[in-house]
């Protein structure tokens, strides 16, 4: 038995020494595609960890990320490969992160650290990359009135769910932006819809298609109130092009909708209650109801119906007090309901990212079902708004928050 223990310890020590030697050959390479971007212009942060391990290092590696202060993450991808350098076969972990600056000035990116798992039999170790400094430029002046906040080209498509409708029958107007700019910070444009339409805007949707290709969708629910032929005129949206260092515009297409009268449909949607004089004569309104009769108040049933709820309430209150089910500690962890949430939203003080962070804290501390709509989409929009440079977006989201709570 003693011989077995000595042999086992020798094996473990040998494995640790070999792993430490392998770790000494490991290194990290990090590249930044643009060290002088404009505010809102995405750039690539690419890290490659070369490990002399002969196994799948992707299952063992744990990246310790920099804080990326002043930068927002657009997307990140993990891949692995095998590469030979200086007659050493390396397993390579590749992490590509697309970042977007959310404020101008000098931003420092701390070293990225790759650390092996603490739960392996080998001796754990870590390697670090170099640090970077990024100088973020402000956008040139003057900024066009129709500027969307996007740095980089995109295409825009407008459409309606139907080109023919009826009065009172809802349909949708959609605007979809697709491009390589940071579309997550794009706010909803002001669209001149016909005054005869009731317009309700849905929560915007954002999707990272691949790399820097993003999709931002705005949707409005339309309820036409009068018949006629309507046109939503085209309008322009501008973005900043870093290659030409100028503002460029894209134009939407106009859409036409024909609305019919739909009188039969509208009348059936709003039934009216019959007037009292139209009620049949056999329906009595006064003392013939069994609870309305004068003699019922003097019966035993009347007093039982009044006193039994009171007695039950007193008994339940005594049980709670005696058995301690009403302890304050059981209520201290209760989350905020909608009424308290409205008061808290109205008391928020701040702008831009500060206001968004406060709303995220309130939403996480509420008793709302955050995994269900519309709260799931709203929380996602708040997370994306953390990286939006437009201060006005915070106030727009707060008003939307109040509308959802109401």
Written overview of the protein:
- The structure is a single chain.
- The protein is α+β, with helices and mostly antiparallel strands.
- The protein has helices spanning 2-25, 263-269, 300-323, 328-332, 338-346, 352-364, 375-385, 392-405, and strands at residues 27-32, 43-51, 61-64, 71-85, 88-101, 105-109, 113-116, 126-128, 132-136, 147-151, 154-160, 164-166, 171-179, 197-201, 205-210, 213-224, 228-232, 236-241, 246-251, 255-260.
- It has four domains: 2-136, Immunoglobulins (Immunoglobulin-like, Sandwich); 147-268, Immunoglobulin-like (Sandwich); 272-333, no CATH class; 335-405, no CATH class.
- The strands form six sheets. Strands 11, 13, 14, 15 and 16 form a five-stranded antiparallel sheet that branches. The chain has a four-stranded antiparallel sheet with strand order 1-2-5-4. The protein has a three-stranded antiparallel sheet with strand order 3-7-8, with no helix packed on it.
- The longest helix has 24 residues, at 2-25.
CA radius of gyration is: 32 Å
What fraction of residues sit in β-strands?
25-35%
Report helical residue fraction: 25-40%
Number of helices: 8
CATH architecture of the largest domain: Sandwich
Quote the CATH topology of the largest domain.
Immunoglobulin-like
Number of domains: 4
Secondary-structure element order, as H and E?
A: HEEEEEEEEEEEEEEEEEEEEHHHHHHH
The biggest sheet amounts to: 5 strands, antiparallel
**What is the level 1 CATH name of the largest domain?**
Mainly Beta
Give me the CATH superfamily of the largest domain.
Immunoglobulins
């Amino acid at each position: 038995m003693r011989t077995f223990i000595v042999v086992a310890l020798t094996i473990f020590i040998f494995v640790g020494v070999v792993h430490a030697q392998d770790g000494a050959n490991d290194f990290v390479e990090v590249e930044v595609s643009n060290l002088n971007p404009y505010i809102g212009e995405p750039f690539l942060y690419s890290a490659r960890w070369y490990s002399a391990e002969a196994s799948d290092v992707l299952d063992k590696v744990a990246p310790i990320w920099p804080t990326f202060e002043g930068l927002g993450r657009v997307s990140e991808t993990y891949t692995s490969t095998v590469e030979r350098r200086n007659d050493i076969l390396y397993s390579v972990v590749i992490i590509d992160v697309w970042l977007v600056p959310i404020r101008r000035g000098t931003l420092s990116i701390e070293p990225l650290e790759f650390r092996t798992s603490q739960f392996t039999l080998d001796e754990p170790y870590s390697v670090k990359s170099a640090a970077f400094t990024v100088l973020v430029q402000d956008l040139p002046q003057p900024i066009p009135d129709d500027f969307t906040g996007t740095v980089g080209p995109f295409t825009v498509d407008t459409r309606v769910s139907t080109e023919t409708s009826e009065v009172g029958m809802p349909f949708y107007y959609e605007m979809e932006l697709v491009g390589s700019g940071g579309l997550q910070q794009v706010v909803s444009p002001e669209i001149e819809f016909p005054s005869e339409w009731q317009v309700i805007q849905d929560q915007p949707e954002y999707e990272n298609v691949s790399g820097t290709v993003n999709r931002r969708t705005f949707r409005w629910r339309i309820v036409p109130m009068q018949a006629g032929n309507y046109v939503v005129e085209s309008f322009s949206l501008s973005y900043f092009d870093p290659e030409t260092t100028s503002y460029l515009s894209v134009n939407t297409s106009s859409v036409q909708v024909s609305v019919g009268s739909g009188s039969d449909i509208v009348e059936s949607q709003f039934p009216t209650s019959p007037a009292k004089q139209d009620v049949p004569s056999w329906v009595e309104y006064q003392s013939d109801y069994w609870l309305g009769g004068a003699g019922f108040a003097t019966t035993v049933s009347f007093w039982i119906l009044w006193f039994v709820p009171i007695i039950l309430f007193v008994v339940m209150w005594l049980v709670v007090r005696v058995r301690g089910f009403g302890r304050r500690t059981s209520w201290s962890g209760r989350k905020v309901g909608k009424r308290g949430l409205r008061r808290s939203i109205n008391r928020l003080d701040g702008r831009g990212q500060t206001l968004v962070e406060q709303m995220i804290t309130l939403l996480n501390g509420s008793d709302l079902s955050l995994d269900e709509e519309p709260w799931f989409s709203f929380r996602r929009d708040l997370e994306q708004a953390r990286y939006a440079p437009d201060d006005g977006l915070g106030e727009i989201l707060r008003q939307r928050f109040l509308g959802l709570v109401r």
